[in-house]
Design goal:
Length: about 500
């Protein structure tokens, strides 16, 4: 009960201010939440059949497909607690929070030291990269959990000499979860599966890896069939990547290599981070703490010098390198969402560093020769200069992590509520003024600033308004004369402007 109470208190602290920070609700969040609400009611999203493998969202030139995991998770939450922005944000926060605690527990298991588990958990809970993602109801919110679950499945198998069928299936299913939970998973899932060859250190283990590949491959058949019948599944990727159908392998390689190194540039990662204020608070330094990065780099050196024979740690280094690939295939430099697996692998590399910096106490049995008392256990610590130096180094690094965490969270809570302009906070006042008008229906027009019609549908759900009060106008089709319109146009023509708020217009057509 004390443990449950402590975790509940920690979660309350972790989610402090979540009702107003981030402000507003971004259009992609509304799209996931609205489709999740529909699934909770009918089993189907806005478009398509019931319980689809992927969800078609938006219309016209904005049409794309959303991955299923987050929508089904939100649907389950809405079925229990009802639809709501707070419910959605708390679910997102809970999955990252849970992933952080599981990462800490895994670190404690790997090292055999509870204090290392606590340090890793603290790093995961406070680092900007993961903390900020926990506030967004986007497709990324479950991905850290998917990565940690995969690492747990791999760890449970690795500590056994032979993998059982349970181990093989849990690894394969966790890879499937990685593949279907976010678009980057269609690259990262197979890459991590390839990396399992690191564990093929014997004939039996090789057969286990082959069996895992087979099981995982079978789960990719639905993805292949869906893509074959719905070519639009890859449309968004081709909008974001430098890879074109006519690109040669040589051209792709020459563009990929510099993009890869741009994404792992420590100066960018540690001093500025993602430039998108939706993903990272401006002027809060990097998306990764310098202290965590330094400890992880010490861990990588330790792995290379002393643990290279351990398949687990070889795989963690491989996973770190592989997690950069999906982001490096797109044109955006250091896009934290597309590299969301990277901080999980990086933080896991803290474990060998902390093992080296914080050696276990040695229990030495001693016998008093002139006594009938049983063996006495005395705990000793090394007293050498090397040990004192290690303690000094780890103390400085952890103290610096505390300073970095304090500064970042101060910036987050002071500057975060000011980011309404990237979270569509301009939309709700326009929506409120529109529904205050007696005229129905209200027409929703999508234009330059995107498919914001979905915000109106989501807010209508929250207020219990019937869908019939709104008409989503086909792309580039003008509403009838005299209609009340909420629009994402840059400007309206032949209209009576009622209100303009940010990039949202409310007007009456003439």
């Amino acid at each position: 009960m004390l443990l449950v109470g402590a975790i509940a208190l920690l979660f309350a602290i972790y989610t402090f201010g979540i009702t107003s920070n981030p402000p507003g609700y971004y259009v992609d969040e509304s799209a996931l939440s609205y489709n999740a609400y529909l699934v909770s009611q009918t089993g189907a999203g806005e478009f398509g059949p019931k319980f689809p493998l992927f969800f078609e969202i938006y219309t016209g030139g904005f049409t794309q497909y959303s991955n299923p995991t987050q929508i089904y998770l939100l649907a389950a939450a809405f079925s229990v607690f009802g639809p709501g922005i707070l419910v959605a944000r708390l679910l997102a926060a809970a999955t990252v929070f849970g992933a952080s605690l599981l990462a800490g527990l895994l670190a404690a298991r790997l090292s055999g030291q509870r204090k290392i588990g606590l340090i890793v958990a603290a790093a995961s809970l406070t680092v900007p990269w993961l903390f900020e993602i926990s506030r967004l109801t986007l497709e990324t919110f479950f991905y850290p959990m998917a990565v940690v679950l995969f690492l747990w499945a791999l760890h449970l198998a690795h500590r056994k000499g032979d993998w059982s069928w349970i181990n093989i299936l849990t690894i394969a299913l966790s890879l499937t979860l990685l593949t279907y939970s976010y678009t980057i998973g269609r690259v990262l899932g197979p890459l991590l599966a390839i990396g399992l060859i690191s564990f093929a250190v014997s004939r039996k283990r090789l057969l286990s890896v082959l069996a895992t590949w087979t099981a995982f491959g079978l789960t990719l058949i639905p993805l292949y069939l869906f893509n074959k019948n719905n070519p639009g599944l890859t449309t968004r990727f081709y909008l974001l990547t430098y890879i074109k159908p006519e690109s040669t392998y040589g051209e792709i390689f020459l563009k990929f290599v510099p993009r890869y190194f741009q994404d792992i540039n420590p100066l960018k990662m540690l001093l500025s981070g993602d430039i998108n204020p939706r993903h990272h608070i401006p002027d809060a330094y990097g998306s990764m703490f310098i202290s965590i990065f330094v400890i992880a780099m010490i861990g990588m050196v330790v792995v290379i010098l002393t643990k290279y024979h351990d398949a687990w740690w070889r795989f963690i280094v491989y996973g770190l390198a592989a997690s950069v690939v999906p982001g490096a295939l797109t044109v955006d430099v250091f896009h934290t969402l597309r590299m969301i697996a990277f901080p999980v692998f990086l933080i896991m590399l803290m474990v060998p560093a902390l093992e080296w910096l914080l050696p276990k106490c040695e229990a030495i049995p001693t016998v008093e020769p002139a006594s009938d008392e049983p063996f006495q256990i005395s705990t000793t610590r090394p007293t050498s200069a090397i040990w004192r130096t290690k303690i000094a180094v780890v103390t400085v690094l952890l103290a610096f992590m505390l300073v970095e965490a304090s500064y970042f969270h101060w910036k987050y809570y002071s500057e975060g509520p000011k980011r309404g302009y990237v979270f569509d906070s301009d939309y709700k006042p326009i929506y409120d003024e529109a529904v205050a008008q007696p005229q129905r229906p209200i027409y929703l027009v999508d234009a330059y600033w995107g498919p914001k019609y979905i915000n109106a549908f989501w807010y209508a759900v929250l207020e219990g308004r019937p869908r019939s009060e709104f008409v989503h106008q086909p792309y580039s089709v003008r509403p009838p004369s005299g209609a009340i319109v909420i629009s994402s146009e840059q400007a309206c023509s032949n209209c009576e402007l009622i209100r303009k708020n940010g990039d949202v217009l409310l007007y009456r057509t003439r």
